[in-house]
Specification:
It is built from 12 helices and 14 strands. It is 36% helix and 19% strand. Strand 3 and strand 4 form a beta hairpin. It is of the alpha/beta class. The structure holds S-adenosyl-L-homocysteine and iron/sulfur cluster (SF4). The site of iron/sulfur cluster has 11 residues, from helix 4. It is found in: Cytoplasm.
Length: 365
């Protein structure tokens, strides 16, 4: 199997260049061609000598995951389904807004953490995505969006923000996620600001500490409950990393974080975690932590056993947090018609799996 250059950040590419007897500046040239220009063909890399291009073609490939489908909802939300082999598909979603364009990226096929309300969790864990498969999502989106993007949108480039809120738990695929983050931040690659790249975690405490040391980016923590008894049920990893320890890890993270607050995500489940009493309990719980809340109306899927909280319950809950001085946003459910609301991917597991199999079969002829 050839080496896939999409698996390397700057350091990895420099090592690769050394191995084939090339100087470190070649790594910078390659980074720019691959990630800035979205080029996958060595022969198109015009400032590389022919001999070098031949050497590269013999030693390596630039191979992103294949696009199986590409849908745009009426509100502009765009979703790609990418094949990562063996009938597995992963989803990437682009959410355009006036002043920013956010790409929601997946980090694993399935997820081992089995949160009760999450359809990715219901699928179980299949495998970690490689760096090429993680960064390949941004590579594709950037390429596809640049073709139609005009800077009239008030910004220079289509993707300004990344959220690792697709399928999987990013902090249990630590090395590949950090290498991908390096590329997102690298000026020779995507050049995004640390403040605009967000890792979302269900609270893998040791990995939060490592992330803080290795690559501090903005952090979102999936809280979903105001106490351990309920969180143990909704987010089973809480039994290993309970709330008090999680909040202490958030405080440590803030010492090196590019933003001075943690975003807490809170999925709104009817009759489970959306009462006024629970809102007050939540206010008490986080009172010592600089934070913002993002309330996510539950995205239902077949046999989930949960219902979405009513709009009234969501706004009453939000009001309690706001009155206590906590900045709180309610996530808009966007792109619902293509099951692409970010953080709520894989809405229809069985259907989707069948569809992926069918389209892979069709693509294979
Ligand atoms: N594994 C990471 C990141 C991916 S999930 C995490 O758990 O944080 C991104 C967000 O979507 C998380 O806050 C997750 O709890 C939430 N989520 C999962 N399933 C959902 C559903 N069916 N409806 C609404 N939000 C959901
Ligand atoms: Fe995994 Fe996040 Fe889903 Fe929990 S909510 S099962 S951690 S993807």
């Amino acid at each position: 199997m050839s080496i896939n250059l999409l698996d390397f950040d700057a350091k990895g590419l420099t090592g690769f260049c050394a191995e084939i007897g090339e100087k470190p500046f070649r790594a910078r040239q390659l980074l720019r061609w691959i990630h800035r220009a979205g080029e996958a063909d060595f022969d198109a890399m015009s400032d590389l000598a022919k001999g070098l291009r031949e050497k590269l073609s013999a030693a390596a490939v630039i191979e992103p995951p294949k696009v199986i489908s590409d849908h745009t909802a009426p509100d502009g939300t765009r979703k790609w389904l990418l094949s990562v082999g063996a009938g597995n598909g992963i989803e990437t979603v682009y959410i355009p807004e006036k002043s920013r364009g956010t790409l929601c990226i997946s980090s694993q096929v399935g997820c081992a953490l089995a949160c009760a309300f999450c359809s990715t969790g219901r699928q179980g864990f299949n495998r970690n995505l490689t760096v090429a498969e993680i960064i390949g999502q941004l590579w594709w989106a950037n390429k596809a969006l640049t073709e139609t993007f005009t800077s009239e949108a008030g910004r220079e480039r289509p993707v300004t923000n990344i959220v690792m809120m697709g399928m999987g738990e990013p902090l249990t695929n630590f090395e590949n996620v950090v290498t991908s983050l390096d590329l997102m931040l690298d000026d020779n690659a995507y050049g995004l600001s640390r403040r605009r790249v967000t890792v979302s975690t269900s609270g893998i405490i040791p990995a939060m500490d490592r992330l803080r040391e290795r690559c501090p980016v903005a952090l979102a923590v999936s809280l979903h409950a105001p106490n351990d008894a309920l969180r143990d049920q909704l987010v089973p990893i809480n039994r290993k990393y309970p709330i008090r320890e999680l909040l202490a890890a958030c405080e440590r993270y803030l010492q090196s974080a590019p933003r001075d607050f943690i975003t807490f995500e809170y999925v709104m489940l009817d009759g489970v975690n959306d009462s006024m009493a629970q809102a007050h309990e939540l206010v008490q719980l986080v009172r010592d932590i600089p934070c913002k809340f993002n309330l996510i109306p539950f995205n239902p899927f077949p046999d989930s056993g949960f219902r979405r909280s009513s709009a009234n319950a969501v706004s009453r809950f939000r009001d309690v947090l706001m009155e206590a001085g906590l900045v709180t946003t309610v996530r808009k459910t966007r792109g619902d018609d293509i099951a692409a609301a970010c953080g709520q991917l894989a809405g229809k597991v069985l259907d989707k799996t069948r569809r992926v199999h069918r389209s892979i079969a069709e693509a294979a002829g």
